[in-house]
C-alpha cells in the first residue's frame, strides 16, 4: 500500500485540535506496534489509527449536515448518541479527503467506538489502540496495556468490558453492537 503518511498527518493537522492530533498519532503508533506483533500490515494499521477520529472535531451541525448530504444511515441508537456519529462521518472524510478506499481500513474506522459483531484483526487493533494509547487514563488501562502484549482478543475483551461498565455506571445507552462484539469475543476467549 502506497499512502503518504506525512501527507495524512499534515492534512489531519488542519482538521483536528492539538490534543486530538496527539491522540491520533499515539493511536497510530500503538496500532503499528500491535500490527507487527500480531502479523498484520503495519502501514494499514498506522493509516487507520491516524484517521480513526478524523471527524471527531467537527461540530454537531457539520456532522448532521454530512449525514444528510451523504445519506448516512443511522440506526435508532446512533440517533440518540451524538458521540457515535464521528466514526460514520469519518468514513466519508477518509474516502473524500484522504482517498482511502480500502474497505478493511474503512471498517476499522467505522467500528472503533462500538466494536463490531465480527471484528477483523484490524478492527481489534484499532479498537484497542484507541483505548490504550499513552494519553488514555481510564481505570485499569494499565492491565489492558499489559494484556495487549500477550493476547489481543483478551485485551479487546477487557477494553470492551471497561467501556460497557463505564456506560452502565453513567446510566448511558449501550449500542447493541457492543454487546454482540463482547459476546463473540467472549465465546472465542473463554469457550474455545
Ligand atoms: Fe473516536
Ligand atoms: Fe480515538
Low-confidence runs of at least 5 consecutive residues: none
Share of β-strand residues: under 5%
Q: Supply the helix-strand structural class.
A: mainly alpha
The CATH level-2 architecture is identified as: Orthogonal Bundle
Just give the CATH class.
Mainly Alpha
Number of domains: 1
Ligand identities: fe (ii) ion
Number of strands: 0
Order of helices and strands: HHHHHHHHHHH
Rg over CA atoms: 16 Å
- Mind describing the biggest β-sheet? none
- The average pLDDT is 96
Helix percentage range: 55-70%
Q: What features would you describe in this structure?
A:
This protein is an all-alpha fold. It has one domain (5-190): Hypothetical protein af1432. The chain is 68% helix and 0% strand. It is built from eleven helices and no strands. The protein has helices at residues 5-15, 18-37, 42-51, 60-69, 76-80, 85-96, 103-110, 121-132, 141-150, 152-169, 176-190. The mean pLDDT is 96. The structure holds fe (ii) ion (2 copies).
SSE blueprint:
Blueprint: H1 5-15, H2 18-37, H3 42-51, H4 60-69, H5 76-80, H6 85-96, H7 103-110, H8 121-132, H9 141-150, H10 152-169, H11 176-190
This protein binds fe (ii) ion (2 copies).
Brief summary:
The chain is an all-alpha fold and 192 residues long. 68% of the residues lie in helices and 0% in strands.
What features would you highlight for this structure?
single chain, Hypothetical protein af1432, globular, 192 residues, binds fe (ii) ion, 11 helices, mainly alpha
